[in-house]
Amino acid sequence: MTAPAILDVDDLWVAVGATAVVRGISFALSAGQRLGIVGESGSGKTLTALAVMGLHRGPVRVTGGRVWLDGIDLLVLRRRELDRIRGRRISMIYQDPAAALNPLMTIGAQIVESIRLHEDVRRASALERAADLLGEVGIPAPRQRLAAYPHEFSGGMRQRAMIAMALASRPDVLLCDEPTSALDVTTQVRVIALIDRICRERGLAAVLITHDLGVAAGFCDDTAVMYAGQIVESAPTVDLYARPAHPYSAALMSATVDLTVDLTVPIRTISGQPPLPAETGAGCAFQPRCPISIGLCAEPVALRAAAGRQVRCVRAGESISAEYPVAEHPAAEHPAAGRAASADRADR
Questions:
Q1: Cα–Cα distance between 346 and 318 in angstroms, integer?
Q2: What is the C-alpha separation between 335 and 337, in angstroms, rounded?
Q3: Is the pLDDT of residue 88 over 70?
Q4: Could you give the 3-state DSSP secondary structure of residue 311?
Q5: What's the rounded mean pLDDT across residues 64-87?
Q6: DSSP H/E element including 153
Q7: Residue-wise over 52-73: b if at least 16 C-beta within 10 A, else e?
Q8: How do beta strands 304-306 and 230-236 pair?
Q9: Cα-to-chain-centroid distance, residue 261
């Protein structure tokens, strides 16, 4: 029996002005489940997360769909009603903590503000919990660090503080928007390991938006591939990495660098460029870059079930291996997963 969804995004459309940039996105998460959303820059990953959180502002607007959080449609709530849920039931970790944190407030004051916004507790109690949260995310001497300002923290420590703020009111769902993109490689491993541990211990449902296929391979139960504002393939991560069915998914996997083989071999690339939102037509947006496209690809195509996954392609799985060879690794052993090892240590 399938567990009930705690977060259910159904046919979400987002536009900038009159141009659709997110087109019919649907996914569902049950408690403790993890979904990865991957794809090139500009595919609509972050806009999807911001729309789910209700953080989009004009000229960006949601033009269709539903976002259900435990039976509540977030898209029909008024701002004050949404504020009571956002941060309390669903939280977000942003990709650049230096931009997301207020430089004029101490770390402690920002975490305390997040706690007291949703709970009627005294400041002293909120400060105590803020120190506990900083300790939980691996920041040394947490009580002393409450008085520090963001510029006094390293990049990794700022991201840990951002994670502490996201966890302050014990949410059920965590949206992680490129949480490691502003960090060096070593710190990326530590931060992902930290998020992984906290999600396991708290039973959080999580959406991970990332360009890093290795991070998604080591963290996510399921992975959705986005292209030009649409999900073109969605499947269990192990199956997707071993046998991608959509040509774009296969192209991403084949472009992965395997550090265990001859590094003098040229890295495979995807020819062409993603289309601008105004350039997408009714057919497959990947058609101009796809080596196996046919005339039928110019017609509208919906996501369809195929071998335990959903694929938006009329030739799903056909003749892809010759164009985009992918080693058949399970996701945890895929060459892309080389940096997803556990190394949960504080940045000092």
A1: 47
A2: 5
A3: yes
A4: strand
A5: 94
A6: none
A7: bbbebeeebebeebebbbeeee
A8: unpaired
A9: 29
Confidence check: pLDDT of 326 > 70: no
Write out the H or E segment, with its range, that includes residue 66: strand 60-69
pLDDT at 1 over 60: no
Residue 127 identity:
L
d(CA 277, CA 21) in angstroms, rounded, equals 6
Rounded to an integer, what distance in angstroms lies between the CA atom of residue 110 and that of residue 126?
11
For 213-240, b where at least 16 C-beta lie within 10 A, e where not — what string? bbbbbbbbbbbbbbbbbbbbbbbebbbb
31-47: b (≥16 Cβ within 10 Å) or e: ebbbbbbbbbebbbbbb
Quick one: average pLDDT of 55-71?
A: 93
Instruction: Decide which of 4 and 22 is more confident.
Output: 22
Is the pTM higher than 0.85? The answer reads: yes
State both tokens at 121. Answer: 């507790």
**Residue type present at position 243:** R
